[in-house]
Amino acid sequence: MRIVLVGPPGAGKGTQAQYIASHLSIPKISTGDIFRANIAARTELGQLAKQYMDRGDLVPDEVTISMVRDRLQQEDARDGFLLDGFPRNVPQAETLKKMLAEWDTRLDVVLELVVDEDEVVRRLSGRRQCPQCNRIWHVDFDDKRDGVCDDCGGRLYQRDDDREEVVRHRLEVYAEQTAPLVQFYSDEGILRGIDATGPVEDVTRRALDALRPFE
Ligand code: AP5
Ligand code: ZN
């Protein structure tokens, strides 16, 4: 299955992507995670991306698109994938469509995680991430005051772009550039929206129910 997850920053895309991808045995491809791994490894790509990410702006399309093109051509993505964080504007969506058509394929479904702005701010302000396994936690909801990843023992960190003023800007960027994708994919007839509030397991159940017809 070829799936795209959309939703505002903090909607739970990364959290749900880890469960959905493992349930469907497809790779989870997160552009944000790939950029963060490049920043940690101090690559040229990472240095470029960091300037945009720290401000909450989008990394330029040509950089992001060529990175995704390379990733989608890897063996493990041949028969399916879950994209988290890409596409993020209409030009990226149009390029993805053309790219898949070149390979004689297309997206099956775009899953929209619907959640309001107050909840998003609450989730982002308490988010912690593991630098080793990329697992996402929340200080309060997961009782993670010890700052240690239960899965691998990694030291959890807070993302630079989760500072309040940057979060506010990311929400504006989402409204201006990413929200139009909802209409784009609705016009294509492949959009499915789910309520992304409530316990993580409930959201996962709704997501898998919405995806079942495409399996
Ligand atoms: P990216 O990493 O994609 O960030 P984002 O889209 O802003 O999304 P987030 O990762 O902030 O949120 P999420 O929806 O994954 O929520 P999460 O599961 O973590 O992008 C970062 C930057 O990279 C961008 O700003 C841009 O600069 C650049 N970039 C990336 N892709 C790009 C592209 N295609 N083009 C250009 N630039 C690009 O959950 C949040 C918190 O809530 C966690 O603490 C979690 O534990 C908690 N939580 C989740 N679900 C629940 C629940 N049901 N109940 C309670 N808490 C929950
Ligand atoms: Zn970990």
UniProtKB/TrEMBL annotation:
Top-level taxon in the UniProt lineage: Bacteria
Ligand binding (ATP): 10-15, 127, 198
Primary location class: cytoplasm
UniProt-listed InterPro entries: Adenyl_kin_sub, Adenylat/UMP-CMP_kin, Adenylat_kinase_CS, Adenylate_kinase_lid-dom, P-loop_NTPase
Residue ranges of every copy of the Adenylate kinase active site lid domain listed in the record: 127-161
Pathway(s) it belongs to: Purine metabolism; AMP biosynthesis via salvage pathway; AMP from ADP: step 1/1
Positions of the UniProt region annotated as NMP: 30-59
EC numbers, comma separated: 2.7.4.3
A Pfam family of this chain: ADK_lid
UniProtKB keywords: ATP-binding, Cytoplasm, Kinase, Metal-binding, Nucleotide biosynthesis, Nucleotide-binding, Transferase, Zinc
UniProt catalytic activity: AMP + ATP = 2 ADP
Cross-referenced HAMAP family: Adenylate_kinase_Adk
Function comment: Catalyzes the reversible transfer of the terminal phosphate group between ATP and AMP. Plays an important role in cellular energy homeostasis and in adenine nucleotide metabolism.
UniProt similarity note: Belongs to the adenylate kinase family.
Subunit composition and interactions: Monomer.
Domain notes: Consists of three domains, a large central CORE domain and two small peripheral domains, NMPbind and LID, which undergo movements during catalysis. The LID domain closes over the site of phosphoryl transfer upon ATP binding. Assembling and dissambling the active center during each catalytic cycle provides an effective means to prevent ATP hydrolysis. Some bacteria have evolved a zinc-coordinating structure that stabilizes the LID domain.
PANTHER family, alphabetized: NUCLEOTIDE KINASE
Name assigned to this protein: Adenylate kinase
Organism: Actinomadura gamaensis
